[in-house]
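Before going further, learn to read the protein records used in this course. The integers have meaning only within a learned vocabulary of local backbone shapes. To see the layout at work, look at the sequence and tokens printed below.
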Amino acid sequence: MKLTIIIPAYNEEETIAELISTVKKVNLGEIEKEIIVVDDGSKDKTREILRITKDIKFIEHEKNLGKGGAVKTGIHHSTGDLIIIQDADLEYNPNEYLLCIQPIIEKKTNVVYGSRFLSQKQKKINLNFFKKHENAYRMAYFGGRLLTILANILYQANITDEATCYKTFDAQFLKSIKINGNRFEWEPEILAKVRKRKEKIIEVPISYNPRTFEQGKKINWKDGLHAIWTLVKYRFVD
């Protein structure tokens, strides 16, 4: 069995090398790893770093398409049985891959989300970060909570973290779904289409090390509005 780790990267020169090194060290037992990094038109030194990085499948976008566009490129080039999305920063811990893929391996579902809100310890970390960086983080935090509520109302998703990066899929199932969105709206789109197929999303608790906008966080209020519209739109169209 093979796990494909798709890493969309845009202007992540400060973290990309350490992130890939961490991913390479993850022990998955007999499960093979395929690391696909898609540079989405970076303007810093990200692609220069990736060009000399060994043991990865490196793909370049000449222009910035957005996270969804990079994810779609990664899916197209993937050869694994399972697929997980990994941001290029250090907010998420690759050592939790096994936790995320286990329900799929056990045939309990085709989709697993790693939730930043299932663990009481992690919820306390989130709250402490929010208190220190309230102005910068307010939009991202409450935007994510609102999207989760809407997902549960519109699609009976029964989840706690719609906006999580750690979305894990059976590869064949994921490739059967057409993804249209090129930016962050690909995430509510995939949730809508998964749930419209009556597929259960299982959540597992994960750790999270949030970063500020000064450190490179990229999502903004426009992405939030687009995500809300995406959830509503796909409730009525395919």
Summary: The two ends are 32 Å apart (CA to CA). DSSP finds nine helices and seven strands in the chain. Residues 2-236 form a domain with the Spore Coat Polysaccharide Biosynthesis Protein SpsA; Chain A fold (CATH 3.90.550.10).
